[in-house]
Amino acid sequence: MISEYFIEFFNRLERQGPGDDNYTELAFCLLDNLPKNPRILDVGCGTGRQTLTLAGIAPCEITAVDVFDSFLNKLNENLKQETLKGTITTLNASMLELPFEDEQFDLIWSEGSIYIMGFENGLKEWKRLLKPGGYLVASEATWLRRDIPEEILNFWTTAYPEIGTVTEKLAVIEQCGYQPLAHLTLPEYGWQQNYYDQMEAQKQDFLDQYGDVAEAREVVESELEMERNLYQKYKDYYGYVFYIMRKI
After folding, report:
1. Percentage of the chain surpassing pLDDT 90?
2. Taking Cα atoms as reference points, which of 2, 9, 7 lies closest to residue 209?
3. In CATH, what number is assigned to the domain containing residue 23?
4. Tally of domains in the chain
């Protein structure tokens, strides 16, 4: 169960996972047959950094879904400060039980969140929500090499057993009834500057407020210090890959 301190810490961040505005835009621009005002479902949107990026690119209607009200509240606050081409509506719902009818969306977007229900399961479950020929874009933890050191292999196979190579992920995409169109590997700065450095910047203020609570200290020690150190040591072996696909 996710603790209140985990939510409090991550609510202070622009992103709840590695990412980059330019790569969000690049992935979107590869979708060359979208309608003029596409309906987009952003699943596991968090505080919505990528949601705002998408709405700033082109006219669109985005439904941004997350299960934590504090994340959605922050997205709604940020909406007031932005001039966007598209519209954003927030909805508290679980990605495991999305309350939509079949074939409602032209595009489903999932940055760093599909792991919650598993890559294959997510592709299968969300497929019904896409219109015929609709797109799905998901960033997913992926091995970038095959000669994986034991320490990082053990970490990831415990944290997310479904992690695989690009070749393995593309095979899953095809098996689930999608056509793979492209894949993009998020660069190192999407992890370091855009994620871990942002966490570091919030660390002291968070500990000043909650440092006497062991549960709060554990959030910083595990999410920031341990995972950041592993990434710096093994960043050549894994990363996030944007998988861009079309429903067949």
Report:
1. 96
2. 9
3. 3.40.50.150
4. 1
Q: Residues 194-202: what's their mean pLDDT?
A: 95
Let me know if residue 206 belongs to a domain.
Answer: no
Asked whether residue 223 is assigned to any structural domain, the reply reads no
Kindly report, residue by residue over 18-29, the tens digit of the pLDDT. Answer: 999 999 999 999
Which pLDDT band holds residue 103 (cuts at 50, 70, 90)?
very high
pLDDT mean over 193-211: 95
Q: Is the residue at 12 inside a domain? A: no
3-state secondary structure labels for all residues of 38-106: CEEEEECCCCCHHHHHHHHHCCCEEEEEECCHHHHHHHHHHHCCCCCCCEEEEEECCHHHCCCCCCCEE
Coil, strand or helix: which one is 222? helix
Asked if residue 242 belongs to a domain, the reply is yes
Q: What pLDDT score does 114 carry? A: 98
Range of the domain at 79: 18-188+236-247
Q: Which among 166, 144, 134, 179 has a CA at the least distance from the CA of 40?
A: 134
Rounded Cα gap, residues 117 and 162, in angstroms: 10
